[in-house]
Write the structure tokens for this entry.
Amino acid sequence: MNRRLALLAVLLTFALQGDLSHSGPQATTTLQSDTTVISVDSTNLRFSPSSVTITEGDTVRFFWSGQALPHNAVEENGVFDTGEPARAVDESFTFPLGSNGTYVFVCEPHESVGMVGEIVVEPAEVPADPPAVQDDAEDTPFVSVVLTVSVVGFAVGVRRLQGNG
């Protein structure tokens, strides 16, 4: 009986201790991401829209299908490339933090007739003061020590009572 009570006290202590592996507060910045679709106006051999303005963290999706002529979208510095010209394309590129600037891209087979596009990437607004992270886990070891001592004291007291009875 004494061993059962001691085992129960130990199990109860471990169950109530909580997570002692907490590594501290972690702050992360998450950007809201939007997707802008650029397609092809095959009648005029143009991208549609030919110029877009987005924010860092946003995605541009190049999407067309069923075109009579094959197209692609290649950024002049190689930042993105939808591959070989095709009648159907579905490629996306996300502009990460720090990528603000202007990106000019062309359809390689139709560059000479003015099939050129532009993506203006504006800096993302990052909150000046991120919300404070409350780290309640700092008190956990103290609470665990007090709880452990209390349970062990309880077990010893019960054992003494049973020994005297």
User: Anything to note?
Assistant: The chain has a mean pLDDT of 80. The first strand starts at residue 35 and ends at 41. Residues 140-164 form the longest helix (25 residues).
